[in-house]
Amino acid sequence: MAYPMQLGFQDATSPIMEELLHFHDHTLMIVFLISSLVLYIISLMLTTKLTHTSTMDAQEVETVWTVLPAIILIMIALPSLRILYMMDEINNPSLTVKTMGHQWYWSYEYTDYEDLSFDSYMIPTSELKPGELRLLEVDNRVVLPMEVTIRMLVSSEDVLHSWAVPSLGLKTDAIPGRLNQTTLMSTRPGLFYG
């Protein structure tokens, strides 16, 4: 659960979210190094006289500033592609849950069991108990097993919705007439909001 004035991500609950956090840190370090180098070069150009103007026309310098960004982009793209394929992969799910978005509530159906479905309505602010979170508490929570691959089928009845659980690294759009699919696996027990 996020808390007020939080600067970072929520604690990772799934292997995919852990990979996303590592990728974020990797990319942020590359951006930080590039920004530091550019700031250093700009400050150098503003504070010193250009005595070696012949170096600005050198073939080697042009080669370096063409090849170096290509290498940096590859260093960002390869981990990103690996994570994208990991997120798309479905390894023989043990449970399938169908999620239908309605204008003011969600409907859930455990498709592996007969007649196991329910609606989940948001609790109005006036009915919240002390300690419950406004706009996040519902009357019927989805209960899912831990350390099991779960396939979520997400769609909508009427309007566009977004089914998201940040600590699991999930965000899937619910679009009327379209069935989207995502996979999740929780590595620890808990109550996760989205």
Structure description:
The protein has about 190 residues and is of the alpha+beta class. The chain has two domains: about 15-50 and about 60-90, no CATH class; about 95-185, Sandwich (Immunoglobulin-like), CATH 2.60.40.420. Helix content is about 30%, strand content about 20%. The chain is built from two helices and seven strands. The protein has helices at about 15-45, 60-90, and strands at about 95-100, 105-110, 115-120, 150-155, 160-165, 170-175, 180-185. A five-stranded mixed sheet has the order 3-2-1-4-7, with no helix packed on it. A two-stranded antiparallel ribbon has the order 5-6. α1 packs antiparallel against α2 (about 60-90). The chain is elongated and about 80 Å long. The relative contact order is 0.17. The mean pLDDT is about 90.
Write the layout of secondary structure elements.
Blueprint: H1 15-47, H2 59-88, E1 95-101, E2 105-110, E3 117-121, E4 150-156, E5 161-165, E6 170-174, E7 180-184
Parallel strand pairs: 1-4
Antiparallel strand pairs: 1-2, 2-3, 4-7, 5-6
Subcellular location: Mitochondrion inner membrane
Membrane topology: Multi-pass membrane protein
Transmembrane segments: 27-46, 66-85
Beta strand %: 15-25%
Amount of helix: 25-40%
Secondary-structure element series: HHEEEEEEE
- Which value, in Å, is the CA radius of gyration? 24 Å
| Number of alpha- plus pi-helical segments | 2
The tally of domains stands at: 2
